[in-house]
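Dear support,

We are seeing what looks like truncated structure output for some complexes. This example has two components. We would appreciate it if you could run it in full and send us the complete token output so we can diff it against ours.
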Amino acid sequence: MIKAEQKPLEEILKYLNPYNKILLSGCGACVTVCHAGGEKEVGLLASGLRMARQKIGKKLEVLEATPARQCEPEFALELTETIEKVEAVLSIACGVGVQTLVRQFPKVPVFPGVNTNFLGETVVHGIWEERCQACGNCLLEKTGGICPISRCAKQLLNGPCGGISKGKCETRNEADCVWQLIYDRLKALNQLYKLNEIIPAKRWGLESRDSGLRRIVREDLKA
Amino acid sequence: MKAGSHFEKILEKGLFAVTGELHPPKGNNVSVVKRKGELLKGYVDAVNVTDNQTATVRMSSIATSSLLIQMGIEPVMQMTTRDRNRIAIQSDIFGALALGIRNMLCLTGDHQTFGNQVDAKNVYDLDSIQLVDCARTMRNQGTLLGGEEKIDGDIKLFIGAAANPSADPLELQVIRLAKKVNAGADFIQTSCVHDIDRFKEWMKMVRDQGLHKKVHILAGVTPLKSGDSGRYMKKNFPGVTIPDSLIERMDKARNPEEEGIKICVEQIKELRTIDGVHGIHIMTLEWEEKVRQITEMGGLLPRPKVE
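Here is the complete output from our reference environment:
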């Protein structure tokens, strides 16, 4: 799931300064799960914005909507009538959702209300951690299902650096070294032999995130 | 001979090697390199030149190594993968060879958040094992990494890597060492050893796999200056472990500096007796003036001449 956090209210207010009537759009998918941009957060942020603007004597009208998935054009298009009534849109969906609105509604400014942080999982309620960087060539088979690309500060593929200490990362003592976790898991699975293989230099430039705009084309599904 | 360096010859002849370490200046002050170089010359077989260690900006390892060559000192150029992608790495290897550098130590490098440029974007296009493989490919196949393209010239490099026998889990450190050897490491310099029992345990695991016959292992030592400096290193240097008993001994010493040298010499003498240890790597951390005394007291002088 994509994880996000709401931007500071002052920053959002600055974006919205020139406008008197906006749409605040959330998203019913990932950002609902991480409590950053669901229907509940739309309601709370809308009230917060109205109050802040009232205080400075510059009333702001905020319409509210939470499409099921803002990143899908068919759901984004449900906002068409509402968007025609406003001067700008504040989206608290992820960065993908923001750009879906931008593509569908070329004439209205769209601003982000959250910072999109990472692809992660809920560790316990209220704590999320990064688990995937969408590198495009999954290595989890080699690493016991635990990802060193998203979870190692140096993205090392052949074991820990010399900075590993008592199973923790050299950059943050409270963070587990992912290579300790990989080692523990492979050992428990009796698959330590997997660590003997030298994983070659990764093809970041050709098949991964440094290849420029990444795109998937499925001929069988194309309209 | 893979590179024909003095350091390689010492090890290949089965002689006990001694290397030192020089930290380049935090600027372009060549006199610092000259001063530190003179303090090491004749007492060690080769001098490691660090590559912006602890992610702190210093004179480049290649330039500093080149200055040492001009002084008649053989460098071991350290190279980290933190700041260079594979294009820069291979280009720098060409340049280093052109300047007469023959030994290279392949490292991942301390994370940028330890240094004075914490906002830097890190590279880590390769890890240290992939860097060893890259250097070996260039030397043995005469091609660039992963490519068919022939290199114009001979890549004569003696390739090294690091190991940290004090890090947990020990078994994983041995797996890493084996990978480095399989990727093409000719020599290993360990991070500083303070817990000799632990190091012995690690070396036993290394010998059990026969790795000591495939690679020359140099045990790293660092003299402590005081109990406090030991505590500081333990707390702030990635991967450094110092037993509390050693720090206590330093705290109790009447002359901590002398005690630190004494401990270091004791460590060298003990490390030398371990089967599979082919040399000592002395990292004095800005205390180069003590290398003469340490090597003398450690019975490591005179350094042998080889043809």
